[in-house]
Amino acid sequence: MDEATGVAQLAEQAHDPRACDGALARAFGFLGKRWNGVILGTLGSGPLGFSDLRRAVQGISDSVLSDRLSELARAGLVQRDVEPGPPVSVGYRLTDAGRALLPALAELTTWARENLTDC
Q: How many CB atoms lie within 10 A of CB 46?
């Protein structure tokens, strides 16, 4: 087998249509974590303070919201903005990477409305 044939076979194996796409698995591993997608979708309407965000995402505790916002910020999807006070004001907004997810989240929302019954 020559080198070109070996490279072609490796490429074919790497793109096996039956294999799970690693990027898709990572995306759902992250977005599938409870509240992450909901927080991102909520921030899609514009920046919000912590309290406003907590009210908008019903059922989430303060500690979980804080953890998820930190995780989303570390991932580069949410920006935490601190305005000096008094009183100090903290707001959260989507980064460019976070905004890039909005069309996919909108499609998921539409799909859920059309295909999932209330649980």
A: 9
Residue 36 in tokens: 């992450």
Q: From CA 111, how far away is CA 5, in angstroms rounded?
A: 42
Q: pLDDT tens digit string along 10-58?
A: 555 556 666 677 888 888 888 888 999 999 999 999 999 999 999 999 9
The architecture in CATH of the region 20-115 reads Orthogonal Bundle (1.10)
For residue 12 the two structure tokens come to: 């074919």
